[in-house]
UniProtKB/TrEMBL annotation:
<keyword id="KW-0808">Transferase</keyword>
<dbReference type="InterPro" id="IPR015422">
    <property type="entry name" value="PyrdxlP-dep_Trfase_small"/>
</dbReference>
<comment type="similarity">
    <text>Belongs to the class-I pyridoxal-phosphate-dependent aminotransferase family.</text>
</comment>
<comment type="subunit">
    <text>Homodimer.</text>
</comment>
<protein>
    <recommendedName>
        <fullName>Aspartate aminotransferase</fullName>
        <ecNumber>2.6.1.1</ecNumber>
    </recommendedName>
</protein>
<dbReference type="InterPro" id="IPR000796">
    <property type="entry name" value="Asp_trans"/>
</dbReference>
<dbReference type="GO" id="GO:0004069">
    <property type="term" value="F:L-aspartate:2-oxoglutarate aminotransferase activity"/>
</dbReference>
<keyword id="KW-0663">Pyridoxal phosphate</keyword>
<dbReference type="InterPro" id="IPR015424">
    <property type="entry name" value="PyrdxlP-dep_Trfase"/>
</dbReference>
<keyword id="KW-0032">Aminotransferase</keyword>
<feature type="domain" description="Aminotransferase class I/classII large">
    <location>
        <begin position="27"/>
        <end position="383"/>
    </location>
</feature>
<dbReference type="InterPro" id="IPR004839">
    <property type="entry name" value="Aminotransferase_I/II_large"/>
</dbReference>
<dbReference type="InterPro" id="IPR015421">
    <property type="entry name" value="PyrdxlP-dep_Trfase_major"/>
</dbReference>
<dbReference type="Pfam" id="PF00155">
    <property type="entry name" value="Aminotran_1_2"/>
</dbReference>
<dbReference type="GO" id="GO:0030170">
    <property type="term" value="F:pyridoxal phosphate binding"/>
</dbReference>
<dbReference type="InterPro" id="IPR004838">
    <property type="entry name" value="NHTrfase_class1_PyrdxlP-BS"/>
</dbReference>
<dbReference type="GO" id="GO:0005739">
    <property type="term" value="C:mitochondrion"/>
</dbReference>
Amino acid sequence: AWSAVPAGPPDAILGVTEAFKADKDPRKINLGVGAYRDEHGKPYVLGCVKKAEDILVAADPDKEYLPITGLPAFTKAAAKLAYGEDSAPLLNNAVSVTQSISGTGALRIGGAFLGRWYPHSKTIYLPVPSWGNHTPIFRDSGLEVKGYRYFDKKTVGLDFEGMKEDLKNAPENRSSSYMHAHTTPRELSDIIKEKKLFPFFDMAYQGFASGSTSDDAFAVRHFVSQGHRIALAQSFAKNMGLYGERVGAFSLVTTDPEERARVDSQLKIVIRPMYSNPPLHGARIASTILGRPDLYHQWETEVKHMADRIISMRHHLRDALVLLDTPGEWDHITRQIGMFSFTGLTQPQTKTLAEKAHIYMTADGRISMAGLNSANIDYFAESVSNAVKG
Ligand code: PLP
Ligand code: TYF
């Protein structure tokens, strides 16, 4: 039956891990996948997660199905974390929230809901470049994906003028636009309002960028305070280290409780045929952490610890590249925030790094800063310096 099925290409991000695993050199480094690693390069289970799991085991809960939209204690706490406890639409019971299969699932629910119900168009504008999975997620949701300028390869920084121009040229009232929650400047709120675009935020790293969950939610809260009725995808993969537990939430800010109830009903109709209802365990862990002051406090400390380690790696790397007289300008490494850095390395340079130095990253030159530690960062800097010098 499948003789006409062509072999597809491997996933651009997960393929990097495959290549890394096959490499037997002891110096090898994997900077492909965006998963936190500790000082010793090991995966890290947060202390607050272990404590929450102990509490859950002691409580011996049943394994009954969750409702279609997930664990109510979790969705409530997730919305409060994102929008803030003093958020007007939240206090007004006008935010429709559902649990999701992590951030990816939240984006997919959002894509499907927009595809079915956004009245003006099926076009979504994504920043260029964006997370590699964004385009397939929204395309498979039935939306037409277009791009707006976002990252300037020359300055290795935000192309703010290009971004404004492209969004100003987007057809009025007919488009939705997507943005990374931690990099969306205030001025955009006005442009998006003026053009009547619909803002869709992806908050996959709340707390990871600055070390503070409320600072990282600034753009989301600012847009909401300006009256935008946003869509929001949340992931607890990175900030709670719950990757494989698949904990996330999708929410829509609506006008009032009556509209919210209608939106709630349609979200259920979107989700039910996709996967019926979400998994239980991770949502229980997250809601336990978010709901208990002692664990919440410990979580904040642990998120800050992860963020600070990444920030210190940024400084170390920038300084090392400069000290090695590496051609080019490297301040973007400390200017960028979050888990990743767009190094500006070219595709041939990333290929050389893999072949000669056993260092793996995505072909676009993106590195996961969390893969660096005091034992490998100097080897990495020297290898990059050599690759750039050619
Ligand atoms: N959005 C962005 C920008 C990401 O980088 C990621 C993961 O790397 C995700 C969403 C979704 O991740 P997950 O589905 O594991 O929550
Ligand atoms: O590193 C990244 O950008 C992510 C990581 O099911 C990832 O793509 C890997 C697997 C997965 C979701 C996210």
